[in-house]
Structures are given as C-alpha cells and as structure tokens.
Amino acid sequence: MQFSIKGKNAVLFDMDGVLYDSMPNHSVAWTLAMEHFGMRMTPHDVYLNEGATGFDTVSRISLRERGRAASDDEVREIYSYKAALFRNMSPAGIMQGSKEVIRKMADLGLQILVVTGSGQNSLIEGVQRDFKGYIVRERMVTSFDVKRGKPFPDPYLKGLEIAKVDAREAVVVENAPLGIRAAVAAGIDTIAVNTGPLEDSILLSEGPVLLLHSMMELSKWLDSQ
Predict the structure, then answer these.
(1) Distance between CA atoms of residues 220 and 199, nearest Å
(2) Four-way CATH pick for 10-21+93-222: 3.40.630.30, 3.40.50.920, 3.90.1150.10, 3.40.50.1000
(3) Average confidence (pLDDT) per 10 residues, the chain, 225 residues
C-alpha cells in the first residue's frame, strides 16, 4: 500500500543530514578526534553511528578499538575535543529543500518537532534561528533531554510526549540507520532520506515506509499529499 501522511498530526525531523548538510563536518571532526586519542573511526563508521549520542559513539568505538568501554571522564574529554573541532569548521549549510519541506508540512497542519542525538549547542541554537517561526527549543529533543539516545526509541517517544500525539498520528524524517531504527521501535512511520554515502539497503533494512534521496525529492513528494 502506498504511504500517505494524510491523518498525521506531527512530523519529527532529525537534524544532521536532514535539516543541515552537517554530516561531512561531523565525519571529519570525529575522524580527527578519535585519531588524536589513538583510535580509528572511518567516515563510514561515522555515518553508521549517526544519531547516537556522543557518549554512546565514544563508548562503542572505544570498545572496538581498545577492548574496553571509555570512562565518563574519557568520554567528556574526547567529545569536547570533537565538538571544538566541529565548531572551528565552516558552518554547515542548510540542506537544500529542507525549508520547503517544513513549510509544506506546516501548511498541511502538522506540528513541527526536531529529534536529534546532537549535543552541539551551535547547531541546536542555529536551527531555531534558521527555521524561525517553525522550530523552538521547547519542541526539540536533544542528547540533553534523554538518558538513552538513538537507536533506543526514547528520543522519539519523548517527541510524541511533547507533541501530545499517538505514534500512529506522527511521521519521522530520518537519514541515519540508527535514527530509523529508533523511530520504528517507537512505532512511528518513518521516511528515510538517504543524503549520505551509505547504501540504500542499509537504511531499508531498518524498516522505513518510504525511501527518498534528498529533501528536494521529499518536497516534491509532498506536493502529491
């Protein structure tokens, strides 16, 4: 059956790789940070782990590379180093088509929320400025707002709580495998937008109801709704 957003009351957007073309910067920052602390993290690793909190990402790579989980102090040190590298890069641009998608979703009567694993204050503050009139901090779920990040469903369950809607009344827009897994686990129909280098099959294996390849493509799809 063809998927439709008719009857939906809220849309929950991921941020990196959906609203911002920020994943290339994240990829470089993570790769350099891990190298600085004697660990290897490839760009492919970065995209596979996208959506997880910084704590979970550091812990996962540390376990693989050093055979042990990172301590809380190590996580803070590594993530702070990565965040500093990210802040010093040229700001990530707004993903082409994302403003049109948000406007069309709002015009269709859907509440607009953001659910991100990011703890980058520069992006959390920037999204409220760049999408003024649509996105406010009170309708965002970040790594500061949940104990368990993606791929656990907790961030998206928190988003449903904020929107005061049932999972069946919501739709998620995600580009990351872990984010799709989290949204599907929360019982929410999920549109995958593959804006990165991963194979479609990796995203499709997580169970989205629809897969597109850009926010511009999603914007065009919305014209049929």
Answers:
(1) 22
(2) 3.40.50.1000
(3) 89 96 95 97 94 88 95 95 93 95 97 89 88 96 91 97 98 97 98 97 98 98 93
